[in-house]
Amino acid sequence: MILGVLVIFGAVGLTVYLYQKFFWAIYYAAKIGGPPGYPLLGNALLFVNKSPPEFFLALQNTIKKAGKCFRLWLGPELLFIVTDVEVAEAILSSPKYIEKSGEYDFIRPWLGEGLLTSSNRKWFTNRKIITPTFHFKILEQFVEIFDQQSNIFIDQLRPKAETGECFDVFPLVTLCALDVICESAMGTKVDAQIRSDSDYVKAVKEITYIIHLRTYDVMNRYNVLFNLSSYRRRQDKALKILHGYTDSVIRSRRQVLSQQNAAEAVVPERRESDVGLRKKVAFLDMLLQATVDGRPLTDLEIREEVDTFMFEGHDTTTSAISFLLYRLAKHPDVQQKVYEEIISVVGDDHNRPVNLSQLNELHYLDLVIKETLRLYPSVPFFGRKLLENSDIAGITFPAEASIIILPFFMGRDADYFEEPLQFRPERFASETSAEKSNPYRYIPFSAGPRNCIGQKFALAEIKSLTSKILRHYKVLPPQQDQQREESFIAEMILRPTYGIPIRLQDRR
Hints:
- By secondary structure, this protein is α+β, with helices and mostly antiparallel strands.
- The chain has a 4-stranded mixed beta sheet.
- Strand 7 and strand 8 form a beta hairpin.
């Protein structure tokens, strides 16, 4: 009898709690509207058991039917899908909405509370510490790394050019970008382009795959199910390698800096070789010498930021460079203009190193990169979590909801860009372009307080590698019978479903 009463009271209490918790969410979600769903499941059936490309197509079709701002229920999770510029601007431009959405929890096992995933005071403090790392003078020193790794990349491509075979360039660009970011972030070489079977390289591939899987796999989104799966064991194994490697580099570099500081206390003049060494590890050095509230950063805090730089700095540039090569192959007239500009700025010496000032003079290449990122933004969505009921651009969104902003679809919206599916770099040269009339129509690097801090680093790397490739090779499309319709995997990073098939022709 007593047990029965307790069960009834417990059930009533749970019902009241859930009602209070979800009432306003359900109320405001209903006012905004969205595709029809089912009790408990919500709209999960739209996406369950979908492969990554099918998930992307399902999302694309839902957006076409539901409009520029609508709600989705994934079980108890409430998401609002946004491609409306006014809503996107109101959210991204405000310091009030800087809390990342739940999708970023999938990255936390690797990155912890680094700049990408942290919020509030920690995010503000770390952003302030890291910003000087991307100063022009420090960025200039990274260009040497870009050039050296580009030379290795050119050598890796040479057999492909000699045979004229069609090949997928995406995995090769991935290895080159990984080499660049490892040396830039930590000052160490993993030689990914030469040793693609190394444990570290394989661990990076593994952890990024699992992160991407959890963004679209409805079952693995929930920790209770993910922790029971084989993916959790695979994640733990990869993290042991990744964190172990970064920790060892931090300890080693901290010891080197300690020895250098001790030597400088005796002999203040630094040797030129020491200066060169410090230049190559500016990012890690900056963190090792930074303080928060008068104390140095812990090894864990440093590892979080270095790993964040690793994650954000190799997958995103891989996507951008690969889609850029794809478009250059499809548009030989654009490729020729880019090549002529490169030769006019750099000269016709295929192997001549390029400095940052020269890269900044490649103005037409700038337009081509912008047009590529409009159509293929490396990060296809940004997520924010609302901490309270919020009126945004005339719409009331409930607390605890996630706002998912999709620059991929915004860049292809005819309301924002004339003939959006046409590849026309010159559209960004106009003073009346959509980007200039409202910058939030074009947001491949996000915008506002949480915009991409490494934007200039990424653009310099893209320009450096592209200029080296085009000085050595013409980029050609696959033969007609090898061409496939565009298809995408839109997870944390935009990827091509079938790779980026191209051919190369030696210019010599």
